[in-house]
Amino acid sequence: MTTLLLAGAGAVGVRAARQLLDTSGVDRVLVSARPSAHADEVATVLGVEVVPFGSIPDGVDAVALAVPGPAAVPLARQAVGAGIPVAAACDDRDAVTGLLALDADARARHAIVVAGCALAPGLTDVLARHAADALDRADEIHVARAGAAGEACVTALRRSRRDRPVEWSEGAAREERRLGPELVWFPDPVGARECVTVAAPVETLHDAVPTVQRAIVRAADVPAPKRRVFGSRRPRDEEWGAARVEVWGSRGGAREGVVYGVIEHPAVAAGTVLAVAAARIAGLLPEVRLRVDEPGARGLGALVEPPPFLAELARRGVKAAAFEGAPAS
Amino acid sequence: MRRFHRWGLVVLLGVLATIVVRLRAKGGVPPTTGGWRELEGPDFR
């Protein structure tokens, strides 16, 4: 009997709960949220059980965290302390580096921590690994994202655009001068968006592609949701989001680039990625092969083999695309 | 001499405007060839 605990019942949490319930082998899904009324609403609609926020009942096989960054790290530490694997969807730099810092504890407790199981970081890390596998040696990664899953995600994204950008260069994550805005071409209907370099958790990209010399993440601003014809604004999770991953390196002695993109509602993408990752570390979905089966804290790109993971996402409706043509760099 | 100064000022303002525009909209060459192809079965092997 496999039981998963999902913490968080916002835009991402609800999608993750639906995906977990649709996963073969999941017998029980427990939901906790703050305020607890959110969890009660999800429980009423989806028929899952509610448990108090901050508690991990006995018999939980894996924990999925769909809570803002500051709440994710203590919950992950609690799960690791109990030797339970945990996957977290948070995308802000402080939280992801905080989760990666649980590595020693996770190894000691034989637990797996997956940091950054959302659109970016998360799916973009897997796409970066997939692109790197198409090259003999990958040395440069450019990730760009547009859109946000919910209000907590918007707050984290705006902060990352305001803070000093962080790049991976010369073997470490370094704060760099902000470059000017750059137009990035996402798949339609998002199309071209002006993006700036951001303070992103680039460590997960290095985790996924250890040969990388330079990794940069850019993000578009998140405008207020469009208004309906009359009246209120659309919910943010009805807006499209996108990610683009461009990996450069050598193949057959020549310098080449591989570009992947994805377009989806960010909350749907993040919820699906989180659910698949959580189910996998709970011991389900054996077809999603792991690159590393050892305890420790790492990014999603370092954990899973890209082809079966992307195939599982595509089966659930989150489909990536390859740009076929001349990349513009 | 006064006309020379005026033209110099116009040229200087033009150069500054160009620098600002270039800094604001750096890079981003639109893809003129190719397009997006959804990943399918063979891509997942």
Could you give a quick summary of the protein structure above?
The complex is a heterodimer of chains A (329) and B (45). Chain A has helices spanning 11-21, 36-46, 69-81, 93-100, 103-108, 123-133, 151-162, 203-208, 266-281, 300-303, 306-315; strands at residues 2-7, 26-32, 49-50, 62-65, 86-88, 112-115, 137-146, 166-169, 172-175, 182-185, 192-197, 214-220, 241-251, 254-264, 296-299, 320-324. With 329 residues, chain A is of the alpha/beta class.
Describe this structure in words.
Chain A is α/β, with parallel strands linked by helices and 329 residues long. Chain A has eleven helices and 16 strands. Chain A has two domains: 2-117 and 269-315, NAD(P)-binding Rossmann-like Domain (Rossmann fold, 3-Layer(aba) Sandwich); 123-266, Dihydrodipicolinate Reductase, domain 2 (2-Layer Sandwich), CATH 3.30.360.10. In chain A, strands 7, 8, 9, 10, 11, 12, 13, 14 and 16 form a nine-stranded mixed β-sheet that branches. A seven-stranded parallel β-sheet of chain A has the order 3-2-1-4-5-6-15, sandwiched between helices. In chain A, helix 6 packs across helix 11 (306-315). Chain A is globular and about 55 Å long. Chain B has a domain at 1-25. The longest helix of chain B is centred in the first third of the chain and has 23 residues, at 2-24. Chain B is rod-shaped and about 75 Å long. Chain B has one helix and one strand; from the N terminus they run H-E. The chains are: A alpha/beta (329), B mainly alpha (45). The interface between A and B is medium-sized, with 28 and 22 residues.
Which keywords apply here?
heterodimer; A: alpha/beta; Rossmann fold; Dihydrodipicolinate Reductase, domain 2; 2 domains; nine-stranded mixed beta sheet; 33% helix; 28% strand; B: 45 residues; 51% helix
Count helical runs of chain A: 11
Structural class of chain B: mainly alpha
How many distinct helices of chain B?
1
CATH class designation of the largest domain in chain A:
Alpha Beta
SSE class of chain A? alpha/beta
Average pLDDT of chain A works out at 92
Number of strands of chain B: 1
**How far is it from the N-terminal to the C-terminal residue of chain B, by CA?**
75 Å
